[in-house]
Amino acid sequence: MEAERVEMPEQPAEVRRHNFDEVALGYSEEDAVLEASRCIRCTRPKCVTGCPVSVDIPSFIGLITEKKWDAALEKIYETNMLPSICGRVCPQETQCEAVCLMNKKGKPIAIGRLERYVADRCRAERAQAGQNAGKTTLPEKNGKKVAVVGSGPAGLTAAADLAKAGYSVTIYESLHAPGGVLTYGIPAFRLPKDIVRDEIEGVKRLGVEIRTNNVIGRIKTLKDLSEEYDAVFLGSGAGLPSFAGIEGENFNGVYSANEFLTRINLMKAYKDEYDTIIRKGKNVVVVGGGNVAMDAARSALRLGADKVTIVYRRGDEDLPARREEIEHAKAEGIEFSFFTNPVRINGDLGDEKVRRFDVVSVECIRTEPGEPDESGRRSPVPIKGSEFTIDADVVIIAIGTSPNPLIFKGTPDLEKGRKGTVAVNDDLQCSLENVFAGGDIVTGAATVISAMGAGKKAAASIDAYLKNKA
Question: Which CATH number does the domain 13-128 belong to among 3.40.50.620, 1.10.1060.10, 1.10.10.60, 1.10.1790.10?
């Protein structure tokens, strides 16, 4: 009989819903070796092609079975400098693990959990020995300079690959701390911030310079960078929040998920020693069904909400969030109102002397699947006469984001794509010849690993472009 997949221990739901500590507790050495031993080392490993950054998965898993931890980490580092991050937040279930041959016999190898274990173990051991985790030997410089706009997963990956190829790389980050969505967006209970800082340090040890508080479009334009550097990679993500366009979205207590999560993660609103202002509601409504909605809802619960309701206009099976995050939210007591669409946010206007405009409820309407469109997806349609109200003192809108239009300021030659994205060709090259772009700024909001894959592809395209130009 085939060995069963080794599950990862977690904080109990009734405990973790009151803290921001990491939910998943990680494998022990025994767990990691046992899980790694399930891998059958396919001759044609589909898991590698299923990985957007092409990690040599069978090789690093094989090294785990031999307990060669440093060698396993270096094997991962060949294509991925952010393994502790990827091991935590990548949707392995739809990528590398989805094509694992072990699916035919039961459950796939827990690739992400093994990646996390190796990276975490080596980091802890090297820290104890006073050593740095990650490669410290810098490559010989080739005399070319590349600017990277944005220090999120796309930017960090592109920068690391370019640095390994000998380029002098400078990252321009608009915020005061690097990491992009890894720092401001994903809560600590899913991705501890010391992990993010450590892996960014690994990229910096490759010789990458990171300049924070540099807003491209304000301090410099993209056109300026394209003239100052041999090439530019634009990986500034999609940080402009979308709203539902309904009445009452301007009331006190209504947040975009971006602002809400930024106040918690980057500005540490959940820690008493910080003075970050955030409204800690007792009845919180979150509009949306993606990973960001789950993060916002679970964060609101940990801030002290008595009731958190996720409002989604389709059904449970249509939720775009990772199933693991959905189940975690349900276990923690988050309520879901499916086939529900908000139509108005109601507020308390206060008396004539004090106009507060505070949120008091969300008016909703039931929906049902409509006729299939060309893609076969059935758009929800409202059911007449099904209106109802949910009490709320905080409402969080988590229905997507788009690129910040500021990036286009001063660079009229930069061609736009749909919904304010940046248009690129198959090599991720923009309308400006030496400017390349990838990640959410091209695709719209997507996953961390897909952004990393775009960063890796763009780095290869930049390398080929500059070598051909030489």
Answer: 1.10.1060.10
Q: In 3D, which of 320, 325, 298, 319 has the Cα closest to residue 309?
A: 298
Q: Which CATH class is domain 243-399?
A: alpha beta
Render pLDDT for 48-107 as a digit per residue (tens, 0 to 9): 999 999 999 999 999 999 999 999 999 999 999 999 999 999 999 999 999 999 998 889
CATH number for region 145-239+402-469: 3.50.50.60
pTM over 0.85: yes
Q: How confident is the model at residue 1 (pLDDT cuts 50, 70, 90)?
A: very low
d(C-alpha 134, C-alpha 137), whole Å: 9
Relative to beta strand 307-311, strand 401-402 is unpaired
What size, in residues, is the chain?
470
Residue boundaries of the structural domains of the chain: 13-128, 145-239+402-469, 243-399
Residue 132 has a pLDDT of: 67
